[in-house]
Amino acid sequence: MTESPCIEIEGLTRTFSHRIFLARRPITGTIALDHVNLIVEYGEVHGLLGPNGAGKTTLCKILATILLPTAGTVTVCGSDVVTDPRAVRRRIGIVLGGDRGLYGRLTARQNLRHWGALYGLHGTALRSRIDELTERFGLTTRQHDRVETFSRGMKQRVHLARGLIADPELLLLDEPTDGLDPVAATEFRALVGQLRAEGRTILLTTHNMAEAEQVCDRVSFIDNGTILDADPATLSALVSRYERIDALGVTEPTRARVSTIAGVERVEDLPDGYVRFHATDRPAATAVLRALVDAEVTRIRNSEPSLEEIYLHLMGGQRGMRVD
Amino acid sequence: MRLLLTGAAYQLRLLRRSPGDLIALATTPLLTVVFLAVVEHNGRPDLAVNAVLAPALIALWGMSLLIAGDMIDAERATGTFEVLVATPARLWPLFTGRVLVVTVVSLLGLVESWLVATVVFGVPLRVAHPGLFAVTLLATVLAMSGHAGVMTSLFVLSRSARIFQNSLSFPFYVLGGVLVPVALLPAFLRPVSTVVFLSWSADLLRDSLRPAAPDSPVLRVGMVLGLGAAGAALSWWLLSVVLRRARRTGSIALGG
Ligand SMILES: Nc1ncnc2c1ncn2[C@@H]1O[C@H](COP(=O)(O)OP(=O)(O)OP(=O)(O)O)[C@@H](O)[C@H]1O
Ligand SMILES: [Mg+2]
């Protein structure tokens, strides 16, 4: 196998246009993806974070060959999604979020058998694969029940089993924990952890920061059809760019003096009594630390910003997760 | 081939879960009663064959088109269509396998009609040429399954086609010579009905129930199969058009 990445997206644009009855040309409407570049290496669990309507599902569908790109090139497991969709389909599994996507009137086992057959599996190979997956996902006792009688969490496990039926190299998970209760979501994340340990490549979309932080090796932010900082170097630079230093027992004069240090962006009072100094770069953070130590402040802690903060920071100025 | 079986197996499971889909078979005996009553009342026992076969062919045509026309919509409703498109499987054999099962099941209409004729009306029916009868039935089932797929795609391409779904069948009952042999239709309709496989099937089935030796049976069965193959090719092509269009416009999840 060559060292080319599992997913290679270059200049991907996707627009949705709609046609008015009898009109000659379609009207160009939404730009769902706008010149997106993204690389996901084999064995990586890659998170795609973004608010509603960011273009996450559209991206997943293009990777899954369900949608065609409007422009740009997309290569999945070495095959082009436009010129060789069949080769792509053989090597990926897809789990679209939500309640749908299974045959409710069939049992879990019948569903898996049907989907397995669509991947060309049959006979003993298919049977033992289904046994293995039902066992692994705790579906054995209920495999002969109709899927429409399952809870959301159970359905999600059937979904995942279906996505894995053909032993795909790449698994696309579109908001897999959407609608799951916290226990089921945690279980699900543990499963993702196992899949990663098997060396599978996973692209997971979510708007849950904690989830992305917990299960992903790398994260890309997507909003308005644009990917922000897919490059891990840039991202880690971002992380260290926003360093915070929390200190307890800071006197007013010290506080005033520290906040005038160049590179201190903001000072904030935390609920637990600490004062938080936001520094824009490492030298500034170091200067803050030195000033605090000089002022004989001893209760100091240094914490890295969570993904959520970076996310809000990146999105904040534009639109992002604003709650109206 | 294997996908054809996969489709068939799926459809069988669905039918077992919801026998309500077979509701069309409920009207078959009623139609037989109506047709036979007319035939008896007018003292034309020679037309009993027409009266028995017509409801059976109507069941065959109606049920096959119903399932075929509904297939993609149903997949969309369950949210499985997208996932289906993302599998390496070719969808045409899968869908055709499903229609095939329904078409075979629709032959129960023939059994019903036959029972009404013999049990209720006491009409003596005899298959004069059993070989031809069986071969024609087989060819008809195949041709029907090949054609039905046209509806699958047509209803996706044009929402308004669905409005005509029910009325769409009646011209074909006429052109297909289901009750009235094509030879009795106005002359200008005859060329049209020669390309409707059902007209060949209906004539052949009637002939095989009558003692007289049928005219060039091999050629006529060949016509049923040939037209069936043409229908299958058309449905295959239409489906690929639909799938390509859906991937381009993003209409796979949403409506057409
Ligand atoms: N089939 C379609 N036809 C028209 N517009 C579409 C279609 N699919 C998506 N869009 C538009 O493209 C944009 C991106 O949608 P997409 O579903 O990819 O977002 P998302 O990031 O998955 O959002 P969410 O978090 O709500 O699932 C949206 O503005 C949406 O309205
Ligand atoms: Mg989405």
From TrEMBL, chain A:
In this chain the ABC transporter domain maps to 7-249
Which compartment or compartments is the protein found in? Cell membrane
Keywords assigned by UniProt?
Antibiotic resistance, ATP-binding, Nucleotide-binding, Transport
A Gene Ontology molecular function term of the record: ATP binding
* InterPro entries hit by this protein: AAA+_ATPase, ABC_transporter-like_ATP-bd, ABC_transporter_ATP-binding, DrrA1/2-like_C, P-loop_NTPase
Report one GO cellular component. plasma membrane
Supply the SMART domains for this chain. Answer: AAA
Q: Which Pfam families match?
A: ABC_tran (PF00005), DrrA1-3_C (PF13732)
Q: How does it sit in the membrane?
A: Peripheral membrane protein
The Gene Ontology biological process terms listed for this entry are: response to antibiotic
Family according to the record? Belongs to the ABC transporter superfamily.
**What is the name listed in the Swiss-Prot or TrEMBL entry for this protein?**
ABC transporter
Automatic annotation (TrEMBL), chain B:
Write out the entry's keywords from A to Z. Answer: Membrane, Transmembrane, Transmembrane helix
Q: Where are the transmembrane segments?
A: 21-39, 51-68, 99-125, 131-158, 170-189, 218-239
> Record's Pfam families?
ABC2_membrane
Q: Which InterPro entries match?
A: ABC-2_transporter (IPR052902), ABC2_TM (IPR013525)
Record-annotated ABC-2 type transporter transmembrane domain positions: 11-208
The record's subcellular location field reads: Membrane
Quick one: where is this thing mainly located?
A: membrane
Gene Ontology MF annotations: ABC-type transporter activity
Is the Cell division keyword given for this protein? no
GO terms under cellular component: membrane
Membrane topology of the entry: Multi-pass membrane protein
Name this polypeptide is given: ABC-2 type transporter transmembrane domain-containing protein
Organism source for this protein?
Actinophytocola xinjiangensis
